Amino acid sequence: MQTKITYKEIFALALPIYGGLLAGTVVGMIDTAFLGRVSLAQQSAAGYGALFYLVFFVAGMGFTLGTQILIARRIGEGNSAGAGPIFWNGLLCMLGYATLVYIFFNTSVDSFFHGVTRSEEISALTADYLRIRSFGVYGTMINLSFTAYYVGKGRSLAISLSAIASALVNVIAGYAMIFGYLGSGPMGIKGAAIANAVSDLSGTAVFILFTLFQKDLRIMGMFSFFPSLQRLREILNIAVPLILQNMISILAWFLFFTIIENTGKENFGISIIVRSVYSIFMMAPMALGSATNSMVSNLIGQQRQNEVLALVRKTGKFSLMFMLITLVPLILVPRTVFLLFSTDSFLAEKAVPVMYTTVAALAAFSVSNVIFQSVSGTGQTRTALLIETGSIALYILYTFLASQWFPDRLPVIWVAEVLYMVFFGTIAYRYMRSGNWKKKKI
């Protein structure tokens, strides 16, 4: 992939990633919508469990983002054969990580949630959800490895195909199992967990089949699958700060919802539903951020450092424009959007101010995430970690104080998202403008 700084090139790489992320998000949306017809407790527990699962997902994503940056850099340097060994060594590590997560979910989640939640019912339901979903963790981690490979080489169609297949399986299996159309009776949250795991594994099958039919496997070095400590060191040097950064970010979000859970079931139920809505709108900036990350690394590999800021500005403008268009339903009919995930009109009315708060946060995120991902794309992942850590400290401090001073004013607590998005985007932009990243070699 030889990067061109055009809207067409940005769109071509980001669109399949967006399709993949959006289809993947449907998994969480479907669970929220279906379980909302069962009970608020099961809906909240599934959302809370999915958020906890996301902690381990983003740690794996941090590792594979490191492989993505290296693959894009090697291709930019003209060394396409170096991509395969990076992919295989990264995949080997991800399989080991998946095994550790599987063991944890089947041995320790009960005691963990008993210690952090106020509701015994939410604690038990969330632990059940994670235990049942645990066998799908292998599919999740393999999918992340393939995603990094295809984004790194600038060919992201496979991501969309895999995610669409996964989403379709989840919709069909989730509906059948949650409401009992398989002859076994309604399974509720347990059915949702099984459907999630099966859908992850179906996505893996699509990735494998797609890859087997690629004609450039030898050119990309995909037959060089021997373990290498040198390759592993290269990946870890870039990936460890990204793993920590992602872990800190998602743990902060998990803590955010835990703090809200302690202000009452009603606030928690509203926030879990708003999270599903919020996640949908985050997909486009995330896709554009991922594309920017890869394109920045590729540009630097071609010794075109002076063109990086132009790429970042162009992608940021495109992201903001797209976000403002897609936010129209959330601005005009927030109550209607909320009721897609719940039948409770009272909760929908109370959620409207929170939805308006997320509009401001999402507008800021559309630009900030693109800028922030460009920092990682330069290879300066330790700098990105420092920016994230400082932003999260502000985020958690505000959330805690707001929950203590205004426990009955949920929109005030959600302002934490706005502050976080603005702060980390501003710091990241100042760093990119400084040019200190230009001497980094990976």
Q: How would you describe the overall organization of this protein?
A:
The protein contains 16 helices and no strands. With about 450 residues, it is mainly alpha-helical. The chain has one domain (about 5-440). Helix 1 (about 5-35) runs parallel beside helix 7 (about 155-180), helix 2 packs antiparallel against helix 9 and helix 11 packs antiparallel against helix 14 (about 345-375). The longest helix is centred in the first third of the chain and has 37 residues, at about 40-75. It is globular. The mean pLDDT is about 85.
Name the descriptors:
442 residues, mainly alpha
Walk me through the topology.
Elements: H1 7-35, H2 40-76, H3 83-105, H4 109-116, H5 120-133, H6 137-152, H7 157-179, H8 189-212, H9 229-261, H10 265-301, H11 308-326, H12 328-332, H13 334-338, H14 345-377, H15 381-405, H16 410-434
The proportion of residues forming helix, as a percent range, comes to over 70%
Low-confidence stretches: none
Structural class: mainly alpha
Total domains, how many? 1
The fraction of residues assigned to DSSP E strands is under 5%
Which series of helices and strands comes N to C? HHHHHHHHHHHHHHHH
Evaluate the radius of gyration.
21 Å
Mean pLDDT across the residues is 83
Q: Profile the largest sheet.
A: none
In total, the number of strands is: 0
